[in-house]
Amino acid sequence: MHSSIRIPLSITLALSLFSGCAPQPAPQKQVTIDSTLPVPSLNGYLADITSAAFEWKPVDDPRVSGYYIYRDTPGGEDAKLHRIATVDSRYATHYVDNDLRPNTHYQYRFSTFTGSGSESVGSETMLVATQPMIAPVSFFQSVGNMPRSAKLLWRPHPNAKISGYAIERQNVNDQKWSTIATVTGRLNAEFIDRDLKDGQVYHYRIRALSFDNLSTEPSEMAKVVTKPLPPEIKNITATNNLPRAITLSWEPSQISDLSHYNIYRSTSPKGIFDYHVKIDKTAFTDMITEDGKFYFYKVTAVDKDGLESPMTPIAVQGSTLSKPQTPIAYDGKIVNGAAELQWKNNDLRTVSFTVVKTTKTSWISRESVDINNITGTNFRDTDIKPGTQYEYQVVSVDTNGIRSVPTAAIELSYEAK
């Protein structure tokens, strides 16, 4: 085989080469070589990265029906040239071979054929070299420690054939690469990947894309670690001895960009914890209107990016101060025109007692009055009237003014003699 001399094409020729249509290869048939048929005379070729365009001089011989194109397959077991295409018109003078390998040498030969199946002698073998593939993106880096996102930066590709970029990310589970986004425009140089997991490692790379749908080799890999969640809050405590209040306290979060704390509350340790309050201190007093009320609490830290620490698996229990215990051994009777009551104290918290006196003024109406600050365990009521019915109850009172559940009522009636 002999390589032909490549003849430079004009700019007009170059445009016509790449705008011409490339007929599909036809099945190869057994032909008869006719040495009288004209042999195609190649003007030259233009090679790109994955294609090669050819031009030849027109053939005027009316016997010619078209042209056969032969090519080898570099790297294959068969080094021979095989027919790859048929141009079914003797008036055609251009052909484009696509889907070639970059930076590869190919051999081509052309012939003419007739409608009866005869074929000319082949042209001189032309050696064609495709251009090297466009270089990968040379500079690619990442910005980590961002909340649930990763920022990727690269240097715009200098090749004007580049139309954009494909961003690839490696799957954490199977280590496979997949395209997650396409950035249009050669001069673009940034992409932010969102909705990532907290404190997770991600690997990225980038490919440059050409206007003719070529993809470069990937860039160097860039590693990203997303910002982790703030750590759990430690040593949360809750009081159980305050009147109608529960005070929470905890260790300060050690993160440098703390925004605030969130407090969640539930009536059950395994129930749903509803958001209760936002606070920027490490203590909180929950004011409650009930005595002996139990609540369960969890506390989280929130950073300035809105990332919230996990809730602790075990909630802390707090309660308001319970009511004092009700007096016991309660008894009462009328003695010498007065109501005498007595009872026993059942709670060391008790500092005084209150007697609730109810007077039945009619069948349907009653009047009640509290007699407070009784320090002993008995009471004598001389303010009673003959023929009137009274009810008495006793309540324990602690130093906070919290009252116990009253005793059962004792009904007394003073009948004058």
Write the layout of secondary structure elements.
Layout: H1 11-19, E1 32-33, E2 42-47, E3 52-56, E4 64-71, E5 82-87, E6 94-97, E7 105-114, E8 118-119, E9 126-129, E10 140-146, E11 149-154, E12 162-170, E13 177-184, E14 190-193, E15 201-210, E16 222-225, E17 237-238, E18 245-249, E19 258-266, E20 274-279, E21 283-287, E22 294-303, E23 316-319, E24 328-335, E25 338-344, E26 350-360, E27 366-374, E28 378-381, E29 388-398, E30 410-414
Parallel strand pairs: 1-8
Antiparallel strand pairs: 2-3, 3-6, 4-5, 4-7, 7-9, 10-11, 11-14, 12-13, 12-15, 15-16, 17-18, 18-21, 19-20, 19-22, 22-23, 24-25, 25-28, 26-27, 26-29, 29-30
Describe the structure.
With 417 residues, the protein is mainly β. It folds into four domains: 11-129, Immunoglobulin-like (Sandwich); 140-225, Immunoglobulin-like (Sandwich), CATH 2.60.40; 237-319, Immunoglobulins (Immunoglobulin-like, Sandwich), CATH 2.60.40.10; 328-414, Immunoglobulin-like. The chain is 2% helix and 46% strand. The chain has one helix at 11-19, and strands at residues 32-33, 42-47, 52-56, 64-71, 82-87, 94-97, 105-114, 118-119, 126-129, 140-146, 149-154, 162-170, 177-184, 190-193, 201-210, 222-225, 237-238, 245-249, 258-266, 274-279, 283-287, 294-303, 316-319, 328-335, 338-344, 350-360, 366-374, 378-381, 388-398, 410-414. The longest helix is centred in the N-terminal third of the chain and has 9 residues, at 11-19. The model is unreliable at 1-26 (pLDDT under 50).
